[in-house]
């Protein structure tokens, strides 16, 4: 793959908010929004140049900046699952198949199908994963529609269809920083989830939904600052409230509200990001970003007590994610 294959597509709403999508992985490349002072800031963290996304280092790090990931987001234990008495073997490294493997959807060039302009601009991209790719059954057609509404809501809808029974779990892996720079340590985070998934040393779910007591530092059921809490966990959404999660920066007064049709959200707050490339904003070395990856439970095919990840031939898989951005005036 060369730089010539890379394209960036842009949407702008009447509030001057602009969204850029890179065709590699149908990835969110930037999202510029006005803060409380009317400064247009990029709240998405990623490599500065599109060329950075096709380097060997990028492939090796597999950080999935802004990417549409799958066929199966998250981890699948031992890269194996059983479907109708057939055992399927996926690419796995040290007992883990992560984010669809080496040739996951984030590493594909997605085709631009259509774009709309004017109010509530949108774009639709698609990709194809053939039967047996990475070990998954079924020819899978995947589509994503990005819509940027006039009210600064970024709506992401993934749909997928297969000609054979298979498993699928897609999501978006955008790294946010609502200050457009520095750290997310001062951001407030609230997740409407009383439980998360217990995992082993390789971060593989063991089938237990653990109740988070209030003293647990990773209990964000009541809004609190991220501070220096590293998070790489699957939160089981309560679905009792209109919203599923909220992130807020007192500095820019920008609030992100997450709503999804998915049963879980993986929150990923790394202590730091790889240093192989420059970033598109002046983020700090420590706690530069947060991901809110709405999805089914990782490793669901191997745990009968998890929601099913099966997609029957001819049915349609749908993942709806809404990131609504508000400037909260005191
Ligand atoms: C690490 O464990 C984390 C994942 O959750 C994340 O998605 C990935 O880095 C980018 O593997």
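^ Assign residues to that structure.
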């Amino acid at each position: 793959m060369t730089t010539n294959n890379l394209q960036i597509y842009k949407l702008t709403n009447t509030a001057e908010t602009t969204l850029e999508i890179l065709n590699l992985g149908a990835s969110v490349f930037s999202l510029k929004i006005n803060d409380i002072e009317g400064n247009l800031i990029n709240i998405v963290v990623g490599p500065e140049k599109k060329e950075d996304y096709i380097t060997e280092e990028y492939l090796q790090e597999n950080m999935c900046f802004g990417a549409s990931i799958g066929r199966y987001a998250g981890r699948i234990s031992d890269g194996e699952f059983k479907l109708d008495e057939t055992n399927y073997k996926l690419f796995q490294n040290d007992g883990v198949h992560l984010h669809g493997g080496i040739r996951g959807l984030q590493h594909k060039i997605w085709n631009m199908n259509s774009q709309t302009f004017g109010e509530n601009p949108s774009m639709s991209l698609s990709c194809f994963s053939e039967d047996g790719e990475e070990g998954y059954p079924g020819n899978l057609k995947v589509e994503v529609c990005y819509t940027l509404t006039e009210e600064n809501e970024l709506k992401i809808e993934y749909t997928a269809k297969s000609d054979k029974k298979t498993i699928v779990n897609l999501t978006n892996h955008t790294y946010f920083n609502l200050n457009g720079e520095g750290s997310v340590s001062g951001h407030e985070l609230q997740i409407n989830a009383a439980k998360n998934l217990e995992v082993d040393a390789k971060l593989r779910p063991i089938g237990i939904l653990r109740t988070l007591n209030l003293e647990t530092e990773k209990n964000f059921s009541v809004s609190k600052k991220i501070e220096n809490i590293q998070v790489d966990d699957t939160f089981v959404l309560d679905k009792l409230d209109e919203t599923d999660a909220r992130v807020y920066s007192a500095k820019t007064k920008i609030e992100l509200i997450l709503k999804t049709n998915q049963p879980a959200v993986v929150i990923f707050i790394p202590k730091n990001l790889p240093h192989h490339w420059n970033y598109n904003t002046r983020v700090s070395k420590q706690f530069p970003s947060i991901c809110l990856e709405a999805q089914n439970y990782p490793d669901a095919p191997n745990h009968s007590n998890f929601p099913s990840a099966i997609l029957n031939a001819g049915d349609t898989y749908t993942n709806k994610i809404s990131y609504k951005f508000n400037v909260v005036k005191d």
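The pocket of alpha-D-quinovopyranose is lined by residues 63-64, 98, 203, 232, 268 (CB under 6 Å).
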